[in-house]
Design brief:
Elements (H helix, E strand, L loop, with lengths): L1 E5 L9 H15 L3 E5 L5 E5 L2 E8 L2 H11 L3 E4 L4 H13 L4 E3 L4 H8 L4 H12 L4 E4 L2 H9 L5 E3 L23 E5 L8 H5 L6 E5 L5 H7 L4 E2 L5 H10 L2 E4 L8 H8 L4 E3 L5 H5 L5 E3 L3 H8 L4 H8 L4 H11 L7 E2 L2 E2 L10
């Protein structure tokens, strides 16, 4: 089988979407499925407002069609709602081709945090975008329930995984910092709610790994925090393993792959009791979720690191990839998971 995935999130970006897609492709190859990507690479682009490190692709419809037809996919999946995703969506609709989508980011909340745009408007636009899809994949049951309540249909669970060979407790980095070390990894942007972490009074040290548009502001406002820039692979794993608690202050992430990476390195989670942390930690003894983030951070110091590692071992990329492949559509037969489907109306949920 050959699956073509359209995504606006791609290198040089470093985020959960890109890492997930890379892991999916590598694992699918081992399972006998070829995954190709249609990305912004090769298209003209413009800067993204409020995202200075990103560029917005300007896809040419003819080139989109040429790339799709050159790949000869048996299934098509749209991973993002940006210009590339929209162009491929329109291509499929014009030709009557079935496709699947995934909804991985709370764009309505992200936009509302920056501009006076009601969140309900954003979700109305997302419903319209995803309505023609045979299946829309989401990462957790709680996010599925939330979207269903907002009128989304044809929802399917596609969970995430972690490379437990790369992310492991051994070979921790040597950090000459006062203990305990409270760590956050991710994009430094307003939607990540890092201020909630950096502003609380905690013993020891606060460490932030990543880059983003809010970095300069937060470095200035919180000079006692240690900003180490972006890390990846084994080097990132070493920093995880050196931490005592992984602090995840986001209230809007739909999953948070970084949480699995931390757990795989034996590091407990401290977070708010919201979707993402709630789904990953659940009732397992691997973290503390509390409305008072400081209380969660301090209580997480008592969590077993062995329990964290054991919990992460249950999230394999093979299981995640098999779940994804069970939802994709055979373009010639129009079936999802072996069952016949009925195409959704483009405006049914708009």
């Amino acid at each position: 089988m050959a699956v073509l995935i359209a995504t606006d999130a791609w290198h040089p970006q470093i985020n959960g979407v890109v890492r997930t897609l890379e892991a999916l492709a590598a694992t699918a190859r081992k399972l006998g499925t070829r995954v190709e990507f249609l990305t912004p690479q090769g298209f003209a682009s413009l800067p993204v407002p409020t995202y200075p490190e990103l560029r917005c692709a300007i896809p040419n419809p003819r080139e989109i069609a040429r790339r799709i037809e050159a790949t000869r996919p048996e299934s098509m999946h749209i991973a993002t709602e940006g210009p590339i995703g929209l162009a491929v969506r329109n291509y499929c609709i014009r030709r009557g081709l079935a496709f699947t989508t995934s909804l991985t980011t709370r764009f309505p909340e992200y936009v509302s945090a920056r501009f006076p745009v009601p969140v309900s408007w954003g979700y109305r636009a997302l419903r319209r975008f995803h309505a023609p899809a045979v299946a829309t994949m989401v990462s957790t049951p709680s996010f599925e329930d939330e979207l269903a309540a907002r009128g989304f249909r044809h929802l399917r669970i596609w969970s995430r995984g972690v490379n437990v060979e790369t992310f492991r407790p051994e070979a921790a980095a040597s950090l000459d910092l006062p203990r305990p070390i409270f760590l956050n990894v991710g994009r430094i942007a307003v939607e990540k709610n890092l201020e909630a972490f950096l502003s609380i009074d905690l013993p020891g040290s606060k460490v932030v790994i990543g880059h983003g548009p809010q970095e300069r502001e937060l470095r200035t406002r919180f000079p006692d925090a240690h900003f180490l820039g972006a890390k990846s692979g084994a080097r990132l794993a070493a920093y995880y393993a050196a931490a005592d608690v992984f602090v995840f202050p986001s209230r809007t992430d739909t999953f948070g792959v970084v949480q699995l990476e931390a757990l795989a390195c034996g590091v407990p989670i401290a977070a708010f009791p919201v979707a993402g942390p709630r789904d990953i930690v659940a009732r397992a003894p691997v973290g503390v979720l509390h409305a008072d983030l400081r209380q969660a951070c301090l209580a997480a110091l008592n969590v077993s690191r062995k329990a964290c590692r054991a919990h992460a071992l249950g999230y394999s990329w093979e299981a995640s990839t098999r779940q994804f492949l069970s939802h994709v559509v055979d373009l010639s037969g129009g079936r999802v998971g072996g069952a016949a489907y009925e195409p959704a109306s483009e405006t049914a949920s708009a």
